[in-house]
Design a protein that fits this description.
It is a single chain. Among the domains are: about 10-55 and about 145-320, 3-Layer(aba) Sandwich (Rossmann fold); about 60-140, no CATH class; about 335-365; about 585-689. The chain is about 60% helix and about 5% strand. The protein is built from 33 helices and 8 strands. Strands 1-8-7-6-2-3-5-4 form an 8-stranded parallel sheet. Mean pLDDT is about 80; it is low at about 1-10, about 30-40 and about 220. Pfam families: SIR2_2.
Length: about 700
């Protein structure tokens, strides 16, 4: 990563390794050696970090309040079937006063529910007691559980990689995660308390930017959120970022129309060199609203894409050198620290209670020793979470894996990770063998184990020396079977699981083989898997992951159509790709690729039906030619992820295809016009050589 990189169109996508490097620098200070404390980092966490704990996000609360409001206003039956129908009912009857004033440009037919959250509190659910009740009910749905993201975040604080956690959430999960490490941070959850926040504290601090569940005055309504940006104490808190130099944003969309997002805009403008990593669940920066994209344009601004909060923090702590918090690895350590801090009581009975407490700890410590295999597995689990895969393989033998499914799983995962990192066929094959042992020993699987096995087989098929060989073909066939099995077994609750990412990767691998290389059953398997993927995606119609899955499905359908001469597959592919092309409007080569693929599908349909339906075939050829021409013009218009030379080459190819089709259609004027553009593009390319 070049930390001085500047993108005129938005932040630069990077990986988690880039962030771990910067966190290590922030901790060390990188000036006076390892003993010198650096400024550390500030984390800003939003609702996306709490969702896996069962706590609903603002958008979900807004949907629920919309249903409740419609019911209170008299809606019945079909009008309450969904939050969308309830919102439409309220709008039709003019029950949404001042909506356009509070939320300019808000589209009731395609609502951004997160924006509606503050408006509903502003106009309807106004009282502090009512707001507190709504928030408490939402938090109670989490049943007091804490997720892995907050457990890891607490350990990041304990290990001095971060000193301040700011949160827009009302729940106490950040606080709980830090307390579990044995530390009690300073908590600021009201505007008056923010005046006591220190920009570079010696003790960790948690800042609730919108108040917490225990605050007397919550900041939910639109006016309260806007008032936040005017509060001097809040401005001081945000502008204190300059003393840290590194901000990590996780699970926060910045979708509100004021408040924290406005303060961040001002801070980013005032501190242009502030190093920012914005972590997104989505696969594209287009998931960010335009204000956030604008503030992330410039020096030292980066995004990490496609990250569920739990998975992100799990990978982050692994990269920092620890996988599980110290209190999990040494559960008595916190209690020992508590005992040591208790002043020796002067009252005899109280002194006896302290003595008994110490004796109980000693009995736990001196309890019968676990079996050697159990100790190995406990150590291997911690090593696996910490990414110390060589230690796992050294400790967990093939013999252990043959009889213990937990041992087999640990060994298989570590062998697979090492094999993938080194592109080593032998390690990947050993991982496959360990997974076989896992299933032979009746290891429990909800589809996740088969997903990882399938991904390992796919890596094996694509490893150097295996491509196109018999081992590669067999590995790919087994991968297909395991993906299919995982698809049948996977739980709909695991919408954010690795299965989705692996399934999309599998479909991509099938598509990359082309319709000549991919077998018909592989194409069918990939289509079935993508159909299942599309039933569990949660990002919404504009989600890059949703669009990518649909686009891959369209491509696979027209590939199968060419093999099987299936008119229905062509028509379904065209319908899907046409829809995606309307929604995937951005300045990236991927979206232009959707247009090109749609052109391919139209041309394939035309070739198939030209004898029986010549008029429709002609229309399809014309649509394909126009789409090729459109894609060429988009390439020449400039794309943020493609340099000018590559864009010219892509445009030349698209123009060539358009010219061929216009010649087939005997449309000489159009063909000649395209020929002129083609010559200009070729000349331009030659001058850049």
């Amino acid at each position: 990563m070049d930390s001085s990189a500047v993108s005129p169109n938005g932040p630069v996508p990077v990986g988690i390794k880039d962030l771990t490097f910067q966190l290590k620098l922030a901790k060390s200070g990188h000036k006076g050696g390892e003993d010198e404390r650096g400024p550390g980092a500030v984390f800003l966490v939003g609702a996306g970090c709490s969702q896996s704990a069962g706590i609903p996000m603002a958008s979900q609360i807004a949907q629920e309040l919309t249903l409740e409001l419609a019911s209170l206003k008299g809606a019945l039956g079909s009008d309450l079937q969904s939050c969308q129908t309830a919102l439409a009912w309220l709008d039709d009857r003019q029950h949404l006063p001042n909506l356009s004033t509070h939320l300019p440009g808000f589209d009731v037919s395609k609502p951004m529910w997160g924006r509606l959250y503050g408006y509903l509190f502003e106009e309807f659910f106004r009282s502090d007691n009512e707001q507190r009740s709504i928030i408490r009910d939402a938090i109670d749905r989490g049943q007091g559980r804490i997720n892995w993201a907050h457990i890891c975040l607490g350990e990041i604080v304990r290990c001095n990689y971060a000193h301040t956690i700011m949160t827009t959430n009302f729940d106490q999960l950040v606080l709980q995660g830090i307390i579990l490490t044995g530390m009690i941070p300073v908590v600021a959850d009201g505007l008056s308390a923010l005046s006591r926040v220190v920009s570079r504290p010696n003790h960790p601090q948690v800042i609730h930017l919108h108040g917490s569940m225990h605050t007397y005055e919550l900041r939910n309504s639109a006016s309260d959120i806007h008032a936040t940006q005017e509060a001097l104490s809040m401005q001081g808190t945000i502008f204190g970022l300059k003393d840290s130099g590194l901000l990590v944003v996780v699970g926060y969309s910045g979708s509100e129309d004021g408040g924290v997002v406005t303060l961040l805009e001002k801070a980013f403008a005032a501190i242009p060199n502030l190093l920012v990593f914005w972590v997104l669940y989505e696969e594209s920066i287009d998931a960010l609203n335009h204000r956030v994209r604008a503030m992330l344009t410039g020096r030292n601004k980066f995004v990490i894409l496609n990250q569920d909060a739990d998975r992100f923090f799990g990978q982050l702590v692994r990269g920092l050198g620890f996988g599980a918090p110290n209190w999990m690895e040494n559960p008595l350590s916190i209690l020992d620290a508590v005992k040591d801090k208790i002043v020796e009581p002067t009252e005899p009975v109280t002194a006896l209670a302290k003595k008994d407490f110490g004796a109980k700890l000693d009995r736990f410590r001196n309890a019968p020793t676990a079996s050697p295999d159990d100790i190995i597995l406990e150590r291997a689990t911690i090593d696996s979470l910490g990414g110390r895969d060589s230690n796992v393989i050294e400790g967990v033998s093939e013999e252990m894996a043959a009889t213990d499914p937990d041992a087999a799983r640990l060994r298989a995962i570590s062998l697979g990770r090492l094999g993938n990192a080194d592109k080593a066929s032998s390690l990947l094959a050993a991982s496959v063998a360990a997974w076989d042992a896992f299933f032979r020993s009746s290891g429990a699987d909800d589809g996740k184990a088969r997903t990882i096995l399938a991904q390992t087989l796919l890596d094996l098929a694509e490893a150097p020396g295996n491509q196109n060989g018999e081992q590669s073909k067999e590995a790919f066939r087994q991968a297909m079977e395991n993906f299919r099995a995982a698809t049948q077994a996977i739980s709909l609750n695991l919408a954010r699981s690795d299965w989705i990412e692996s399934a999309l990767g599998f479909a991509e691998s099938v598509a990359e083989q082309g319709d000549e290389g991919a077998a018909e059953n592989d194409l069918t398997a990939a289509i079935e898997i993508l159909d299942k993927v599309l039933t569990v995606l949660t990002g919404g119609p504009q989600s890059r992951q949703q669009l990518s899955a649909e686009e891959r499905l369209g491509v696979l359908l027209y590939m199968r159509a060419r093999r099987t001469k299936s008119e229905s597959d062509y028509r379904r592919a065209i319908a899907i790709l046409d829809d995606v092309s309307q929604r995937a409007v951005n300045h990236e080569s991927w979206s232009v690729g959707v247009v090109r693929n749609l052109a391919v599908a139209f041309r394939g349909l035309a070739e198939l039906i030209q004898d029986k339906s010549p008029d429709e075939a002609t229309a399809s050829y014309q649509r394909a030619a126009q789409l090729y021409q459109d894609s060429a013009e988009k390439y020449l218009g400039g794309l943020r992820d493609l340099d000018e030379r590559d864009a010219l080459q892509a445009a030349i190819w698209a123009y060539e295809e358009a010219e061929k089709l216009y010649r087939v259609l005997n449309e000489s004027d159009a063909a000649n016009a395209i020929g002129d553009e083609l010559r200009k593009a070729r000349t331009d390319l030659e001058t850049r050589a």
